[in-house]
Design goal:
Elements lengths: L4 H7 L13 H9 L13 H11 L6 E3 L6 E3 L17 E7 L4 H13 L1 E4 L2 E4 L2 E5 L5 H14 L4 E4 L3 H10 L6 E5 L4 H11 L2 E5 L4 H13 L5 E4 L5 H17 L10 E2 L8 H13 L4 E4 L4 H14 L12 E5 L8 E5 L2 H14 L3 E6 L6 H6 L5 H10 L10 E4 L7 H7 L4 E4 L7 H7 L1
Parallel strand pairs: 3-6, 3-12, 6-7, 7-8, 8-9, 9-10, 11-12, 14-15, 16-17
Antiparallel strand pairs: 1-2, 4-5, 13-15
Helix pairs in contact: 1-2, 4-5, 5-6, 6-7, 10-11, 14-15
This protein binds iron/sulfur cluster.
């Protein structure tokens, strides 16, 4: 049973020391009750209170770890319905499904594609996270052979899909101890599945044929059997039905603190659609709401890139822009005669400008100012990217020491700052560059 804010408050030290980042213990207690703060943020809470508060402090959606080592990913532990309330924490793992009925070369080709695919955006490597291997043949030996072959190609975690205990057991023996997810326990086989998952210490997905009541019943039975790392497939295979189910699951876990359904969700967008376009639409829906593992049936880089970008955007903290470190960055081995530009430390701004400078082949310097991670115009409007800030960065990073002629190029959007910057930087010439990063190479050539 969830504790109210006042019940939690009674167990806190009540010193209002603010070390937790909240102005009072009561404010912290209210946030804790709303699952928008962590008990760990209060360094003064007693062990006795910690134990009493453990239920209130436990994440409403369990954190499940899939895989091991560098390729491990975590899902669950979300605390809000909408990202603007706080943020979404653990982006869904994307998996590509192969079947043991596919021929070996097709499987190898698919696994190679998903294993090798990596694109960088705003300094972050975006990749797929797992391979799902389905025992479509019904043959345990053939399944184990395929699992073994796929493992020889990749360290990615697996989702092992079969209803046959012998096939899963054989697959677990050869998958290499990388903590896969077993899919799926049902009302018919949950006891055997529980034995297997417990014996091998792996996570277990549950598929319901009969809606959320059956799902809750199964999670309770599996919890009693000692299986806590559960992933839920609520069963619907149409867009509207699955959206309703995943939303209900999230609401029940967060708003009602209904522990039986407080587990990450696994989704199969390819099973909601017959076409590639349909699968993309469903995958998009599951990224936005509220899947923890998404198993797709088709892999095309032209589709993977926008899906990964969407995932990155949705799981970026809306209150903390992605930023780069302020400082002076160099491109194409600049010298003292190379031009010096400046812009803000918003990642997207930095990487847009950096991409153009790098690609132009023109040696240049780029001074990145601390504008609290905002883009040029937003920072200017908020007073975070003004003449004073730029002049301070010029001095802090000794930009004058890098170049022989004291010239600095402003982004075209803040041409209005040139007069003030001249006053802040006596002896410097202030130039106004283009508004868009894409026009930088042409601008630099004519300089
Ligand atoms: Fe109260 Fe703990 Fe926050 Fe201090 S850190 S204000 S004691 S809840």
């Amino acid at each position: 049973m969830a504790l109210s804010g006042l019940q939690i408050y009674k167990l806190l030290p009540k010193t209002n020391c603010k070390d937790c980042g909240f102005p009072t213990c009561l404010a912290f207690a209210m946030k804790l009750a709303a699952k928008q703060a962590s008990l760990d943020d209060c360094p003064h809470v007693s062990q006795e209170a910690k134990e009493a508060l453990s239920a209130a402090a436990a994440p409403p959606i369990r954190l499940v770890k899939v895989g091991t080592g560098e390729k491990q990913f975590e899902v669950g532990n979300e605390t809000v319905m909408f990202r603007h309330e706080k943020t979404f924490f653990h982006q869904p793992g994307l998996a590509l499904r192969v079947k043991d009925t596919d021929d070996a070369s097709t499987i190898a080709e698919k696994v190679k594609m998903v294993n090798d695919y990596c694109v960088e955006r705003v300094g972050i490597d975006m990749t797929f996270n797992a391979v799902a291997i389905e025992n479509a043949s019904g043959d345990a030996g053939a399944y184990a052979e395929v699992v073994k072959a796929v493992r020889s190609q990749t360290e990615l975690p697996f989702v092992l899909m079969s209803g046959d205990m012998a096939a899963l057991e054989a697959a677990l023996d050869v998958e290499g101890g990388h903590r896969p997810v077993l899919y799926a326990a049902t009302a018919d086989n949950w006891e055997a599945m529980a034995g297997l998952a417990k014996g091998k210490q792996v996570s277990l997905a549950i598929r319901s044929k009969d809606g959320l009541d059956e799902l809750a019943d199964l999670t309770t039975k599996l919890g009693d059997a000692g299986i806590e790392d559960l992933v839920l497939d609520p069963g619907s295979r149409d867009l509207a039905g699955s959206l309703a189910q995943v939303t209900q699951l999230r609401r029940l876990a967060l708003k009602k603190n209904f522990r039986a359904l407080g587990h990450p969700i696994i989704a199969f967008p390819g099973e909601l659609a017959d076409t590639e376009e349909g699968e993309i639409v469903a995958a998009t829906q599951f990224i936005a709401k509220y899947a923890g593992i998404i198993v797709v049936d088709r892999f095309d880089p032209a589709v993977a890139y926008p899906l990964l970008t969407l995932r990155l955007n949705i799981y970026t903290d809306p209150q903390k822009p992605i930023s780069v470190d302020p400082g002076i960055y160099d491109f194409n081995s600049p010298t003292a005669d190379s031009p010096l530009m400046t812009t803000t430390n918003f990642s997207l701004t930095y990487f847009s400008v950096a991409g153009e400078l790098d690609g132009s082949g023109i040696p240049s310097w780029l001074l990145i100012c601390d504008a609290e991670g905002m883009s040029v115009l937003t920072a200017w409007a908020a007073g975070k990217f003004d003449a004073e800030t730029i002049a301070k960065a010029v001095k802090t990073f000794d930009a004058g020491g890098k170049i022989s002629q004291k010239k600095i190029i402003l982004p075209g959007h803040v041409a209005v700052l040139s007069g003030e910057l001249e006053e802040e930087l006596p002896g410097w010439e202030i130039l106004v560059g283009p508004r868009e990063a894409v026009d930088l190479p042409a601008y630099l050539k004519q300089l």
